UniProtKB/TrEMBL annotation:
GO terms for biological process: Gram-negative-bacterium-type cell outer membrane assembly; protein insertion into membrane. It comes from Gemmobacter lanyuensis. PANTHER family: OUTER MEMBRANE PROTEIN ASSEMBLY FACTOR BAMA (PTHR12815:SF23), SORTING AND ASSEMBLY MACHINERY SAMM50 PROTEIN FAMILY MEMBER (PTHR12815). Residues 1-25 form the signal peptide. InterPro entries: Bac_surfAg_D15 (IPR000184), BamA/TamA_POTRA (IPR010827), D15-like (IPR039910), OM_assembly_BamA (IPR023707), POTRA (IPR034746). This is Outer membrane protein assembly factor BamA. It is found in: Cell outer membrane; Membrane. Belongs to the BamA family. GO terms for cellular component: cell outer membrane. Part of the outer membrane protein assembly complex, which is involved in assembly and insertion of beta-barrel proteins into the outer membrane. Gene3D superfamilies: membrane protein fhac (3.10.20.310), membrane protein fhac: a member of the omp85/tpsb transporter family (2.40.160.50). Keywords: Cell outer membrane, Membrane, Repeat, Signal, Transmembrane, Transmembrane beta strand.
Length: 780
């Protein structure tokens, strides 16, 4: 590129040098200064750039300075400063004016995006140096997209009137994808497990859709830190990520990245104690507050969590400026680390102010409320670090930096927050397919930082062959300026008699508030109002005597359970509910697993037509085993509905356990109505399900995004209110169903797909099986 620019302006490489005065001449006092060759730059400006004043003698050094000043101005291709008799003649050849800037050969980056990159501008003086810099900037833009082979050449097309068109000829080249991520020196964890830690991914069969497989050299430094943090959190305190080498293929369209590690040995916690260096302060109570056990694997996160516990206890006891310093003693033979949490008098430093920059849309208060510290509070470096993590976790910013600097006095600190905003809205259009529900379409609109207030607003509409579901969601994460989340949800659901002999409609609103009870526990309190309708009931033809659901001429029953439900008309249910959730999978001390507990209680009867109590519970535990390549999971769910009035429950209120026991269709188990052709599922007032799962690699290249699983499900749906008055008996007893099967997980751009192949082991004759199912894989 440089050679082209020089070739176009050869005159710039042979500029005339000023004539040196004879050695005997001490100074030159020109009677006249003449400027020649200028067209757009006036004489006064040229003399000012040259530093020449009329009537002032000029030495040889002054003439050289005049030449350098004109040359360095960037306005002239050629410059000559020469005495001629008693005259000083300045000859210049101006650089042309840029008439237009064009881009050729680009398709991945549009002209508008490239125009924002370059600094050369139309109707300004052309600068070869700036054109070269612009070409390098464009190439850097392509490099950030993984196109390391991109080349950019600046060229000029001369026009009349000393004007030129500046053209950047671009060869984009192919995307340089990461063909292979390899590791050297890893013994404790497989390559596959370590690849999951990295943000950089290998190119796979979906390489045209997934962009995380393009090489970004700066990303490798982040990946090195991620690897180091991964090992440290698992007790490998001596881990070193020695190198991250990227070898580019000869065709420059692929790269092979190799991380070189030195794992070291894994250490566990040894003796855990608390020690006080503050006179009169007993450390015994602080030692009881620690939640570390000897023999567990060492993790820096465990240390930080327990420091926070001791700091909180100190504040409750009215102690300020208490510093908790962990003193770690290493035992090489036993590979243990003894930790003594030492209580010391800390430096008396206060937060003078918190400055926030870079948030053009997000309000300051949204960032500020992530701090547990306000102006005037004691300065706590650990709390500042945690605040930075909370800011990044919001998802509003591409980058967030938080640091502290000295304030106006020795005991004051200023906390600086520098954020870089990113788009927070999303519009999703998609299609779905379910074996039972058939094809469907959905549209979703969501903004997670509405008007810069940190609020979430969402609209979702989805349709299937037999149903329509739409909802509106609003979430205020800091209601009344506190750690109190206000949520509002309104929904509309309707079925159209595709897989049942009746239609139904549900309309409801649910306002709720949610707040923390502990680090891992939260409580939601809600009110609700919903209206349910059952209509267009088709009785069909049914056999009441021989028990089958066929058209064999038998007499139709006089009534059906579904028909009686529909006869009750539209029912309004209003009430209050609460849900407690405990989830330590993120906040807990075990990076390999965790526990999720959820218990809900809803009471209907504050007005309306229905009086009932419904209880639901969920308990889940998961753990990574075999060097974290395999995840095992156990899940238990149950629910109970109890009617308080004289009316029985309706089909729109009962439990169906849809999808909770694989191997059966949605609503494929539980009591069924014998009074219609299809034997409609009635649901049950009770359900209980236990599921056991194991996810594991299939041995395929990780870039395919495919893994496998095994599962076993067992459970039942049972119990109806009094149905003895019906002509045909209804089996609503407790009958265990069970199934086993295999799963294939596939991570795709449209979401994580799950293919289930199941075999029902225990079932009832009226149950409806489903051997294969395709769903979007969800997490609890």
């Amino acid at each position: 590129m440089r050679g082209v620019a020089i070739g176009l302006f050869m005159g710039a490489s042979s500029l005339s040098m000023p004539v040196v005065l004879p050695a005997q001449a001490q100074a030159f006092d020109p009677a006249q200064v003449t400027v020649e060759g200028n067209q757009n730059v006036d004489v006064a400006s040229i003399l000012k750039l040259a530093g020449i004043a009329k009537g002032k003698p000029l030495s040889a050094g002054a003439l050289n300075d005049a030449y350098q000043g004109l040359q360095n101005s960037g306005l002239f291709e050629e410059v000559s400063v020469a005495p001629q008799g008693n005259r000083l003649v300045i000859r210049v050849k101006e650089y042309p004016i840029v008439n237009a800037i064009n881009f050729e050969g680009n398709s991945r980056l549009k002209d508008e995006a490239l125009a924002e990159i370059v600094q050369s501008k139309a109707r300004r003086v052309y600068s070869p140096a700036q054109a070269e810099a612009d070409a390098a900037s464009i190439a850097e833009g392509y490099r950030e997209q993984g196109r390391l082979a991109a080349t950019v050449t600046p060229k000029v097309i001369r026009r009349d009137g000393n004007r030129v068109d500046l053209v950047f000829e671009i060869t984009e080249g192919k995307t340089v994808e990461v063909e292979r991520l390899s590791f050297v020196g890893n013994r404790a964890f497989s390559d596959r497990r370590l690849r999951q830690v990295l943000q950089t991914k290998q190119a796979g069969i979906l390489r045209n859709l997934i962009k995380r497989d393009t090489l970004r050299p700066e990303q490798l430094q982040i990946d090195k830190q991620l690897l180091s943090d991964f090992y440290l959190s698992r007790g490998y305190i001596d881990v070193q990520v020695l190198d991250a080498a990227a070898e580019v293929a000869r065709e420059r369209d692929g790269v092979f990245v190799t991380f070189t590690l030195k794992e070291g040995q894994q250490f566990k916690f040894g003796q855990i104690t608390a020690v006080s260096e503050i006179e009169g302060l007993d450390a015994a109570e602080f030692e009881q507050a620690l939640r570390l056990r000897s023999g567990t694997i060492y993790s820096p996160a465990d240390i930080e969590t327990n420091i926070a516990r001791l700091e909180t206890l100190a504040l409750k006891k009215g102690l300020t400026f208490v510093a908790i310093e962990p003193v770690v003693t290493r035992n090489e033979a036993a590979r243990t680390l003894d930790v003594a949490f030492t209580l010391k008098r800390g430096q008396k430093t206060f937060v003078e102010r918190i400055d926030i920059e870079g948030n053009t849309t997000t309000l300051d208060e949204v960032v500020r409320r992530q701090f547990r510290t306000v102006e005037g509070d004691p300065f706590n470096p650990r709390e500042i670090r945690q605040s930075a993590e909370r800011i990044r976790a919001l998802g509003y910013f591409a980058d967030a930096k938080v640091d502290a600097e000295p304030g106006s006095s020795a005991d004051q600190v200023v906390v600086n927050v520098d954020v870089e905003e990113q788009p927070t809205g999303s519009l999703s259009l998609g299609a779905s397919y379910g074996v039972s529900s058939g094809p469907g379409f959905n549209i979703g609109l969501q903004e997670t930082n509405f008007l810069g207030r940190g609020q979430t607003v969402g609209l979702n509409i989805s349709t299937a062959s037999d149903s329509t579901d739409s909802s509106i969601t609003f979430i205020e994460p800091a209601f009344l300026g506190r750690d109190l989340k206000f949520k509002f949800n309104a929904y509309y659901r309707e079925t159209d008699n595709e897989n049942a002999t009746y239609d139904s409609r549900l309309i409801g609103i649910i306002p709720a508030i949610e707040f923390p009870l502990s680090e891992a526990g939260r409580l939601e309190l809600r009110a609700f109002a919903k209206q349910s309708s059952i209509f267009d009931v088709y009785a069909g033809e049914d056999a009441n005597e021989d028990g089958d659901f066929t058209d064999d001429g038998d007499t139709l029953p006089t009534s059906s359970i579904i028909g009686d439900d529909a006869a009750r008309g539209s029912l309004l249910s209003t009430g209050l509910g609460a849900t407690y959730t405990f989830d330590n999978r993120v906040t807990g001390l075990n990076p390999r697993g965790g526990v999720l507990l959820r218990f809900g209680l809803d009471y209907s009867g504050l007005g309306g037509d229905v009086e009932s109590v419904a209880m639901t519970t969920l308990a889940m535990a998961e753990q990574k085993i075999w060097n974290e390549d395999v995840t095992v999971r156990a899940i238990f769910e149950a629910g109970a509905l109890h009617m308080l009035g004289n009316e029985p429950s309706r089909v729109t209120d009962r439990f169906f356990a849809n999808g909770k026991i694989r191997g059966f269709e949605p609503a494929g188990i539980g009591p069924r109505d014998p009074a219609n052709t299809d034997g409609d599922a009635l649901g049950g007032n009770m359900f209980a399900v236990a599921r056991f799962e194991a996810d594991f690699p299939l041995g395929l290249p990780e870039e395919y995004g495919m893994s496998g699983g095994l599962f076993a499900d067992i459970g039942s749906v049972w119990s109806l209110d009094d149905v003895s008055g019906y002509q045909n008996p209804v089996d609503d007893g407790f009958h265990l169903r069970s199934s086993i099967g295999v799963s294939v997980f596939w991570t795709t751009p449209i979401g994580p797909l799950r293919f289930n192949f199941a075999k029902a082991l225990n079932k009832q004759d009226y149950d409806k099986e489903q051997v294969f199912d395709l769903t979007i894989s969800t997490q609890f």
